[in-house]
Specification:
The complex is a heterodimer of chains A (136) and B (112). Chain A has 136 residues and is mostly helical. Helices cover 76% and strands 0% of the residues of chain A. Chain B has one domain. Classes of the chains: A mainly alpha (136), B mainly alpha (112).
């Protein structure tokens, strides 16, 4: 089982990397270029399931929710994650609570249930197919 | 449990565990009741080498993490394109240890 420390460290690093990447994209203005750092995309020339999330988050930040959802619906989850998780991390740090780790474990258990896993995999695959059709 | 059986188990399965865990597993198995032998034998361990290959091929989609049962981390890797490739690269070094830890967890669950 993953330790609580690993969970908090992973979330913190993911949030920092997410904000760093977003900032780099916003200041570098290379969002609309065809360059990609996605290994999967660069090797196979097929978009991966998460291709377009950065652009989607940027659209959502601009207030254009529908464009963001059309580009990649997972962008909404990334946006919500980047908004909620830092606050949650800070709350847990200040209150010396382990609610985020508890939530993570419960969510993991929930996702490992067969019907839920099948639905999630189908949704991700459908979204991936849509990504390929959109030629992201 | 019979020491011969335990030694046979250790010889067959030592690659699935960390080296520092082997003594502990041996001692624990020796004190175990013989009736549990069948159950201990039937556990399907994940091969760390196979996981390394999976990590190399599908690491950026998080498939390696999904396979060892770290669904949360798998989702994290999938949604971040393998952590912009960096996490996928780091996991190439971590995945074998993580697989062995998961195997140990599976054995502990069976021993309880």
């Amino acid at each position: 089982m993953i330790k609580d420390r690993t969970i908090y460290l992973t979330f913190t690093l993911l949030c920092l990397a997410g904000y760093g990447w977003l900032l780099y994209q916003l200041t570098g203005n290379i969002v609309n270029s065809n360059e990609s750092i996605c290994i999967f995309h660069n090797i196979t020339h097929i978009p991966c399931p998460s291709c377009g999330i950065t652009r989607s988050v940027i659209y959502i930040l601009d207030g254009n929710l529908s464009a963001g959802l059309f580009l990649n619906p997972l962008g909404l989850f990334a946006f919500l994650g980047l908004t909620i998780i830092p606050i949650w991390l800070l709350f847990d740090l200040l209150s010396k609570n382990y609610s985020l780790a508890l939530f993570y474990r419960n969510a993991e258990k929930f996702m490992q249930k067969k019907p839920v896993a099948i639905i999630l995999i189908t949704l991700i695959c459908a979204n991936w197919g849509w990504n390929i059709l959109k030629c992201l | 449990m019979d020491s011969q059986k335990v030694d046979m188990f250790m010889m067959t399965n030592n690659k699935y565990f960390e080296s520092y865990q082997l003594n502990l597993i041996r001692e624990r198995l020796l004190t175990l009741d013989d009736s549990r032998w069948g159950m201990i034998q039937s556990i399907q361990y994940k091969d760390p080498t196979t996981m390394l290959i999976v990590s190399f091929l599908g690491g950026s989609l998080g498939i390696d993490r999904f396979m060892i049962g770290d669904t949360g981390l798998g989702v994290g890797k999938l949604l971040t394109c393998g952590g912009l490739g960096i996490w996928a690269l780091i996991d190439l070094f971590l995945i074998m240890g993580a697989t062995r830890e998961k195997n140990m967890f599976m054995l502990q669950q069976a021993l309880m």
